[in-house]
Amino acid sequence: MDKLIIEACPPLNGIVTISGAKNAALPILMSSILADSTCYFDNVPELRDIHTSLSLLNELGAKSYRQDGQSVVIDPSSIDNFNASYELVKTMRASILVLGPLLAKFGQANVSLPGGCAIGARPVNLHLQGLEQMGAKIDVDNGYIRASVNGKLRGAHIFMDVVSVGATENLMMAACLAQGETILENAAKEPEIVDLAQCLNAMGAKVSNAGTDKIVIQGVESLSGCRYRVLPDRIETGTFLIAAAVTGGKIRCEQAAPKTLEAVLDKLTKAGAKLTVGDDWIELDMTDRQLISVDIKTAPHPGFPTDMQAQFVALNCLAEGTSVVTENIFENRFMHVPELQRMGANISLQANSAICNGKSSLKGAQVMATDLRASASLVIAGLVAEGETTVDRIYHLDRGYEHIETKLNGLGANIKRVSG
Ligand SMILES: CC(=O)N[C@H]1[C@@H](OP(=O)(O)OP(=O)(O)OC[C@H]2O[C@@H](n3ccc(=O)[nH]c3=O)[C@H](O)[C@@H]2O)O[C@H](CO)[C@@H](O)[C@@H]1O
Ligand SMILES: C=C(OP(=O)(O)O)C(=O)O
């Protein structure tokens, strides 16, 4: 298993190019199942999850491959297998997103239940209930979701009692080929939902109001292939900005989408950073400025994203003052806390909050990555910890950050990947 060895570094400085968003690219790749002809997707990051998605699509019978670095080509016309096996689904929860498209296009799907993961149980009841409302027959047995529909799915008025990104995406995709109108109430409003809707519309779908909590979809007979560019990764952007902030550095993130991370930029400003923002770039300057801790409460978009919580816990440990970070989305998303404590961080956990006492002087240690963003927080801590930090099990990190050590080293960090 690969690990990262991180030495304390001088203030980060320079320009970093932001990759395409993992969480937009994954549903967009799966949406190709709905199309009758070849799809071309640009700005698709090179990540383990993307690789898994292409393997899954190929397992279904599609012909997909990467072309010219950041572009992916998917020809779905040869799909003839409707089973998503446990072997692939267990490594990537987003595999559940083949369920809606397979059912809508082919009338059947067998998809392994994704199971729980480090950050929580992550049920899929809303995905299943919504599809049932659209006329699907669903059985769950032997760890598989077996779904079928007689004829076509029917449009429905669906109210989701929890805001779910994945359920909104699955149902939105399914509704594109359903008969009649579907209304998704209490829908997720994340930028990745809007990106998926735009991609579906480029294929000929009729999705409106994505980005609000009431999405309306008029079903169409068929969808065609399209060319679509994935939006920039707001979580990668936020992670680099925090890395620069804790080192007292100055960086510019290019090919970013500042409007998608307003809640994060607001907290960074409150944490003492000087931010300058253009249409597609963000500059953070922390030179000679005092880092101040900030209270955080995670919430669905446009609230503060849970995927940035761990990185802010690392920041708060180093900042002036005591802060409270409350996780409201996932029940077990503080796995980074014991590892940060091993590096000397002064944090205590109370129910779903982490109380961070700032100005910790962190010391390098051997720490273990337990999930994707927890891993990112350990890398951030490693940049400023005295001595050497070894972050083990970085396959989590490789799921969601493209060439993270190369990008950070380009800004002046000193990180080595050791294969093992
Ligand atoms: C690939 C991808 O885009 N992943 C993101 C997506 O995950 P994902 O789509 O899995 O997360 P959801 O938005 O569905 O989860 C939000 C909450 O809803 C609950 N829930 C969800 C579905 C369901 O059927 N029933 C139910 O109760 C979950 O347990 C959780 O408490 O959104 C999360 C919340 O912003 C992010 O952290 C993940 O990075
Ligand atoms: C939790 C995340 O991803 P996933 O939903 O793919 O596990 C994440 O991107 O932080």
Automatic annotation (TrEMBL):
Location of the active site: 117
Record's keyword annotation contains Metal-binding: no
Catalyzed chemical reaction(s): phosphoenolpyruvate + UDP-N-acetyl-alpha-D-glucosamine = UDP-N-acetyl-3-O-(1-carboxyvinyl)-alpha-D-glucosamine + phosphate
Residues that, per the record, bind UDP-N-acetyl-alpha-D-glucosamine: 93, 307, 329
Modified residues (2-(S-cysteinyl)pyruvic acid O-phosphothioketal): 117
Enzyme nomenclature, EC number: 2.5.1.7
Cellular localization per UniProt: Cytoplasm
Xref: SUPFAM superfamilies: EPT/RTPC-like
Major place of residence: cytoplasm
Pathway connected to this protein: Cell wall biogenesis; peptidoglycan biosynthesis
Alphabetized UniProt keyword annotations: Cell cycle, Cell division, Cell shape, Cell wall biogenesis/degradation, Cytoplasm, Peptidoglycan synthesis, Pyruvate, Transferase
Binding locations of phosphoenolpyruvate: 22-23
GO molecular function: UDP-N-acetylglucosamine 1-carboxyvinyltransferase activity
Domain (Enolpyruvate transferase): residue spans on this chain: 10-408
InterPro entries, per the entry: Enolpyruvate_Tfrase_dom, Enolpyruvate_Tfrase_sf, MurA_subfamily, RNA3'P_cycl/enolpyr_Trfase_a/b, UDP_GlcNAc_COvinyl_MurA
GO cellular component: cytoplasm
Single GO BP term: cell division
General function of this protein: Cell wall formation. Adds enolpyruvyl to UDP-N-acetylglucosamine.
Family, similarity comment: Belongs to the EPSP synthase family. MurA subfamily.
Protein name stated in the entry: UDP-N-acetylglucosamine 1-carboxyvinyltransferase
Lineage, uppermost ranks: Bacteria, Pseudomonadati, Pseudomonadota, Gammaproteobacteria, Alteromonadales
